[in-house]
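#struct-queue
[09:14] JT: dropping the first one here, sequence first, then the structure tokens:
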Amino acid sequence: MDDYPLLNLFWTMMWFFLWVLWLMLLFRVFADIFRDDSLSGWVKAGWSIFVVVLPFLGVFVYLIVRGGQMGSREHEWFRRRVGETGPARGAGQADELTRLAELKNKGDLTSEEYERAKAKVLAA
């Protein structure tokens, strides 16, 4: 360890983390390319070839051209995924009605307040 100074260790760690950061960015760009349903297969193939053949230039050009909407495309993709596999709408209502019934049984809600809250939950 004496022949490897602390500054060299710092530089090695910095380059390693930059390399990991670069790989994460590269995979994020690939994920965005293939998640975007508005791109045709040829456009996806073109971007993929560009990113594979000239990785640094390809990723930076992709970020300049299409990077502004990457977040919204990812958000939309996750929203669709959760919508397909998420809990049913009635499950939230059932939980809320159970909570209201418990509050009524404890005496925290009057019968009138309970009925009003119940109607509000069922209307939503």
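[09:21] JT: and here's the second one, same format:
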Amino acid sequence: MISTGIGTDNIDIVLNELDALVNVDLTKRRPLETHRSLRFLRLGTSGALQEDLETGTPVLTKVAGGLDGLLHFYRSGGIGIPDLTRDFVHDMGWDGRLAEPYFVPASPTLSRLFDDPGVRSGITLSTPGFYAPQVRSIRLPSRDAVLLEKLAAFRYQGMKIMNFEMESSALYALSALLGHEAVTLCVAIGNRLSTRFMKDYKVAVDELIDTALHKLAGNG
């Protein structure tokens, strides 16, 4: 278990260095001949983007969408979902001055392991910030005041955009590039559409951690 800090920039450091620990000869500074695949499970909190998503509900990220641009700094052909990017850019009226969105699926094996009746699933968006990128403001207004409503209405092959957070796009993208498996489960601690928020979300997060660890151990 490890804490990464907030944001895709921190995930970039942690994923690359964890991979180096198991797949690089650090003395000779070259990749090992035998590749070792790791399993990454992100557990955390998020903001719901569907009005019927009750606070306290775990959300399984079947596809992580990145608004952060990190993937584009890597040679990354073949890991994304181009059709989803195309539809998203079109439906959102995406501003060309922003980073091009990218979408990466979860590990099928890990996704099936955590796909329970009490868990909602769909697309999770990872943003490069907490305020304007998630349509919050103190003194500085966000570029698109109706972005939340457009995100809630978006559909791709029956999937909805379920929630916001700030890490999963990098986790999924780098895991795919490096040959690892990744999945995210986040408690919805606030609903941005209905403006319902949990007063105390720590119990729900603790329950999520306990359930996830039991499933990983084969007891779920």
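[09:30] RK: nice, looked through the second one.
[09:31] RK: The two ends are 19 Å apart (CA to CA).
[09:31] JT: good to know. The chain has a mean pLDDT of 95.
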